[in-house]
Automatic annotation (TrEMBL):
It catalyses: biotin + L-lysyl-[protein] + ATP = N(6)-biotinyl-L-lysyl-[protein] + AMP + diphosphate + H(+). The keyword DNA-binding applies. Keywords: ATP-binding, Biotin, DNA-binding, Ligase, Nucleotide-binding, Repressor, Transcription, Transcription regulation. Biotin binds at residues 89-91, 112, 116-118, 183. Residues 23-42 bind DNA. This is Bifunctional ligase/repressor BirA. Belongs to the biotin--protein ligase family. The keyword Cytoplasm does not apply.
Length: 320
């Protein structure tokens, strides 16, 4: 950790969301001048940390900030764990180092300056508020063997969230997790390699933990987070549990394919047996969703005929 984040992390550790702390006390605790403290706090605000500043009182977090415990992450995750306060993209980091990685290695960040979603969309990544992580996996059967993998990852995350008491969960083909019918988490899988030879997978996922008002305004769809739970999961424990579950499920997927995961997907499928539209430029297809097949394709029934659809440009919307 460089000096830039060393001091910022110390300051964040002193801030609370219930009581103010004076700038003078912060300066004494971290060994900085008052001006330097003010500058660090101003910079933290540019990273998305909501901090109240009141003359004569000092500073206070607008809401609780769920930060990873780095030492617990490194000690409790069996594989290599790359932890960053700040990074452009956890997926990009893993892709850059793919040749050096082993199955289960994971990159975790508190802030992404260039977080990505599907189809090049931005993934809003304010500091400390959510989960941003990417796991590496190598498939010896090639890219073709990765079909349906995003659905398996979604099932893994749902399993882990449910174990932490998260309710109202649902899945949306091909890679979104919802809570109370609003988006809670997303998955971005990027591949490098060949269709028949060894293939490198980077499995990126983001989970909304505690959305701030200023960043909620940047999101163009209904969203959900975990702040309404009676007790928010510890972010470090949640990430560690997801990592373990992913490894178990990925090994099963390699050995048995999609079939063992179809019942779980159907249990949480928000669109199962409902009228839907598949948006496939330049055409739309309408019918009744009948779940997924063994390749992870979505099944659509129209005029009594069930057809499978799969591809990176397919999106799913509830039919009007």
């Amino acid at each position: 950790m460089n000096e830039h984040w060393d001091k910022k992390a110390q300051i964040i550790g002193l801030l609370d969301h219930t009581e103010f702390i004076s700038g003078e006390l912060i300066a004494q605790q971290v060994g900085l001048s008052r001006t330097a403290v003010n500058n660090h706090i101003a910079q933290l605000e540019t990273y998305g940390v909501d901090i109240f500043s009141v003359k004569g009182k000092g500073y206070k977090l607008a809401k609780q900030l769920p930060i990873f415990d780095k030492s617990k992450l490194v000690n409790n995750i069996e594989n290599r764990c790359f932890y960053f306060h700040e990074i452009e993209s956890t997926n990009a980091f893993m892709l850059q180092h793919a040749d050096e990685l082993k199955n289960g290695d994971i990159c975790i960040a508190e802030y992404q300056s260039a977080g990505r979603g599907r189809r090049g969309r931005q993934w809003v990544s304010p500091y400390g508020q959510h989960v941003y992580a990417s796991l590496f996996w190598r498939l010896n059967q090639g890219m073709n063997a990765a079909m349906g993998l995003s659905l398996v990852v979604a099932c893994s995350i749902v399993t882990s969230l449910k174990a932490f008491g998260v309710d109202g969960l649902g899945v949306k083909w091909p890679n979104d997790i919802y809570r109370d019918n609003k988006k809670l988490a997303g998955i971005l899988i990027e591949l490098s390699g060949h269709s028949i030879d060894e293939c490198h997978l980077v499995i990126g996922f983001g989970i909304n933990m505690s959305m701030s008002e200023q960043h909620a305004e940047q999101i163009d769809q209904p969203w959900s987070d975990l702040t309404s739970l009676n007790s928010m999961p510890d972010k470090t424990q949640l990430l560690t549990a997801i990592h373990k579950q992913l490894k178990v499920d990925l090994m099963q997927f390699e050995a048995e394919g999609m079939e063992p995961f179809i019942p779980q997907w159907q249990e949480y499928d928000l669109f199962y047996d409902k009228q839907i539209n598949l948006l496939m430029a330049p055409n739309n297809v309408t019918g009744t969703c009948k779940g997924i097949d063994k390749q992870g394709a979505v099944l659509l029934e129209h005029n009594g005929v069930i057809t499978s659809y799969i591809g990176g440009e397919i999106s799913l919307r509830g039919s009007e």
